[in-house]
Every structure is written in C-alpha cells, then in structure tokens.
Input
Amino acid sequence: MNVSRRGPAGHPTQTATRSRGRTSVVLALAALIAIVCGPLAAAGTAAGMEPAAPTGTGTAAAPLSPEDTTAWLDGLLPAALEREGITGAVVSVVSGGEIVAKRGYGLASAGSATSEPTPVDVDRTLFRIGSVSKLMTATAVMQQVEAGVIDLDEPVQSYLDVTLPVAFDTPITLRHLLTHTAGFEDQLAGLIASAPAEPKPLRETVAIDPPEQIFEPGTTPSYSNYSNGLAAYVVERVTGTPFEQYATEHVLEASGMTGATYEQPLSPERRRDMSAGYRFAGSPEVPFEVVSPAPAGAISATAGDLANFMNAQLGHPSADGRTLLTPESLERMHAPALDEEHLGNLANGPRMTLGFFERDRNGHRILSHAGDLTAFHAQLEIYPNDDAGIFISLNSTGVNGDSSTAIRDAVTTGFADRYFPEERSAPRVEETAAAHAAALAGTYQLSRRGESTFVRLFYVLSSVEVAAEQDGVVTISAITDSAGTPLRFVEVEPWVWQEVDGQRRVAASTDGDTVTAVGFDPAFTMQPMPTERALVPTIAAGSLLILVITLLAWPLGALRRAGTPRPIPSDRRDRALRWWTRGSVLALVAAAPFWSVVAQALISDGPAPSSVVIRVAQVLTALAVLGCIPSVWRAIRAARGTEPEPSTSDGRPRRRVATAARVTGSGLTALAFVGLGFVAVVGGLLLPDLSY
Output
C-alpha cells in the first residue's frame, strides 16, 4: 500500500521519492480540494558514441565484518536520523549464516510529562515491518507448493470458498498473486485502523467488497495488498489452520523469529516492548495501527528476528536446526516468476520473483521488499548469490515526506557500494536512443489505481510525465533523487533505459513503435494516459477558476446595481435560470468541505470517512454539475439576443460592449459547468459504489 512517500503496508519503489503513484495522487487531489476550499470556502551522450559513466564506486570491497559494519553504521545513521527528524531505528546485517551486526539508534519512546524517554533496545524493541510481512505469506505459500498441496499455476478459484470477481477468461493463479499481476484495481478503504480496533477475519477481508479486476492476469504488474491477503487465505484453506497461527508456527518460529508477532493490537506483554511511532521527532505518537488484510503488513518484530529470517531465506537453518524451505524451493522462490511470454519487453526490466522484488546493483543480484505504515518504514534486502543481507526499520516518517526513503536508500545502497562494489564497465548507449526516447515521451497513468469508484479522480490526477531531451536522454517525473530532481536515463538495450551515472532500469513494452507500458519497478507499471484523462487537471483548474470569479462577481454586481434607481428588466425564465446557476455554484461550495474530509482521510491514512459524508459530497457535486443546464441555456439565450436587454439608469440601452461582455461571461460560465461535468464523469466522482 503506497501512500505518498510510503504506503500503509505497502512497497515503495527504489528512489528517493519512491513510487509517487499515491504521492502524486494525494498531492494532486489535495491541490484540487485546496482550489475549491481556499477561494470558495473562506546528462547523456549522443547515441552510439561514448559509453555512459561508470555506475559503481570503483573501489575495493570493504570487509563485511562486525567491526567494519558497526563502524560504518555508527558513522552514518545517528547524524542522518537527527537531520531527517527520525526518532529511532534498528538495523541488522547478516553474512555467511551469521548475524554480523545488530544496531539500535535513538528512542523507542520520546517520553511524556509523566514518563521518561526510552532508548531503542535492539534485542527487545519491536518495530513494525509493514509489507515486509508479505514475504512471510509468500514463504507459507511456497511451503504448501513444496508439500504438493497447491500448484502455483492452477486456478486459485479451485482452492477457495469465495467467488473472485473476474473480467477475463485467463484464470488467476497463485503465481499471479505473488507477483502482483492478478489484475486487481487498488483498494484504499479499510487497510488501516487504529487500536483498539480488531482486524477483520481473513475470509471477510477477501470476500466482502473485493476489488474489481481491470487487467488480464499475468500481463500488468500492479501492486496489490488484496492479492497477498488472498494468497494467505489459500494457505488457511488448504491447511485448515488460521493463517496467522500457521505462519507463526511454520514461518516465524521455524526461522527463529521468536520475538515476532501478528498480534493486532498487541498483548500487554508485547506492548511493553513495542516502539512508539511518530510522524517526525517531537510529534505526538501515532496510535498502533491495525492492518487488514493482516498477512499483508501486520508483523511486529525485532532486528534480530529479521536477521534470522534473512538467514533462513539464504538457506541457513535456525538455531534449533529448522529450515523454511528446501534449497530447490528457495531457488524457485527467488527466480524471476514471469517471462517475456507474459510481460513482453517489461521482462527485460525489474521483475518480481515469487514474493521478492528483484534488483541489481553493482552486478550483484538483490531480492528486496519494503514496508510502510504511517510511522514505521522498513526495508529488507538479501543477496542470494553473496549470502548476505541487510534490514532496517524506522519508527518515524521524518520532517520531509521522503525522509524515511532517503535514509533507507542511504543504508541499502551504501551497503551495496561498500561491500559489493561495481566491477563492470558501463553499458553503451543504443543508436536508437533518440528515436525511442521521443516515442517514450508523454503522459502516463499508474497501473496501481482504482477504476470502479469515486477515487478514480484521485488517480487520474496522478499523471506521470516522461520527457525526452535532444540527445536521447529521458526523465520520468515520478523517479527523482533526494532533492526532487528527476533522474536521467539513456537507452542501453532496445526499449530498456538505465540511469545516467546510476543503475536503475526502466523497460518499455511496445506495439510496433508505440509504447504500451513502462515498467519502472517490479510491481509498478505506467500506461499511456488516455487523452480525456490527461485533460482533466487543466479542465478542472480552468473550470474552478471561472466559477470562483463568477462567485466573486455576484456581490460586486449587486453593489454596482445598488446605486441604480431603475432595476434591470428580466423575465421569469431568465430569473429562474440565473438562480438555478447560482444554486449550482453554491452546491459546489457546499461539497468542498465534504470532499476535504475524504481527501484528508486518504492523505493521512486515517479511518475511512463515513459513507454519509461521501454520499453527501456526491449529491452536492451532482447538483453542481446540473448547473450545465441553466448556464448553457442562458449562454444560448444571450448569444441569440433573447435575454432582456439591460438598460442604463435613464432607460437607454447599454453599450454594445456591455452586451458582448454579458454574452462572453455567460458563455464562460457555461463552459465551466460543462468542464465540471467532464471532470466528474471522467474522474468517476459520481459512481455509486462507496467501497474504495
């Protein structure tokens, strides 16, 4: 679940601003609401010439030892946490089956007027790990595959007692669920609640109001919490054991994660060890968050627990000799799960394994997963070919929206560059770079989006811009450095781009020379934005501006007419149309605070707004959109000259310029209402389904 720089129980992408799918969405919607509520309611080289600059450090690897790792972490993290406003953090590093380092920094609790601050105890303090929990779900599924109980490629419906919503003939399989390619739209409501709320039973979570399927299975990576919950429910069905109980016994305990728990809320015993969460250092505590579906992001654990899990995923037995999976099953789980037959050229970019996000840095293969709640932000990365791994979790978001991401990137990329530096030469730029860059340029929408409910607008406003420079370099607005500057990419393989002076890759799928999809992260895809959707931000801004001016013009016009001894004549129809138009504008004003409540809930990951609030906002918006009728009618009457002719105070007709201004004004008002209707229809604001 990705909101802004993070996502509740979600996976952010690997840049300083991590997938801006929901970041851009939230900010764009907030901007639209602000427009309403504010005024109305009080370096690449030429293609085929020189190679790109080397991507690695060019230095020898440091020894991956307890002494060096501890010194490196201690030199990096305390200052970074203070700079970014992070209250506390834990880190663990493994290599060769051993825990090389476990470090805790800062405070688990900042204290209060009645309690003293509590420092992080790396051996006891529990941190939330968000969507890193999905790796435990994937492991549980693979255990059942290994046992021969389930098949990754059988229709998942055969294991269920609930009927999945499907829109395509291709059946959904567990392979699709674990690779985020089942095709489900994004679902926001109900993901997070605050304690003492209890999580919903897993069956209820997957059976009641499931998301609609908007992509053919196996074709379009699109991050989905629902898919992970559904995979967990399959495990629950085939084992006859509640998933959390099964996973605790066969995944957590089997890998030595003795301090980890799925409990939501925590028991009193666990609560004593739980780190508090903060938006930033010095802010009030964020209440303990209850995630549904729980398998997608519920786990609380220590740094040592995740170190043991990393070692188990690397094939090492736990202290009591237990193993999670056979070497063959681990190899299958860690291999790319979909190929070009399913993904087309997207398979030449970043891909999913069965649960992990596959990455490459400095020529070393990395399997990773991130996890984010409102306050907690975690990242786990293992190096299966190098028998090493690193885990970090933070208990604050930080003073900047991307503070937690910047720190996680500094730690994980710093780890790679220090202990596994680059030894390859940089790739050459393709001769087709300029032509393909021009084809790639345009406006895109994210595959992770809602389509069937009113939040469609929330995603329509999240467009991603791809720009091409003359030398074939492209920039993608959603992929930036820590300063917010878009990264620059050059084509290094046909329809595959690599970061200039970096290693991030982007791949495009095409139909001839037309780009149909862009994969910029294993579970996140961009698709060309339909023209009507690309026009929504401009039309929305223009329409609202005109209606604001219209609203302000009414009292000014009344003041001007107050000194006129003789009223301007009008007929009954004209008066009715005028008051209908004004009523529609006032309905839009009245809708603004209700939409603001909805937007605030989405921005803050707070409880879902009442269905009454959403429905009232929709009804008022519908009344506002109906202003199309009287405004267009009045514009036609004005253009035809059938409206009463305004007169001066002495009864003489006004100047022709005044009549022209009246025709222009009524025409602009009509266009604004038509634009408002366009935004409402294309954005789905009036769709009846309130389950988003």
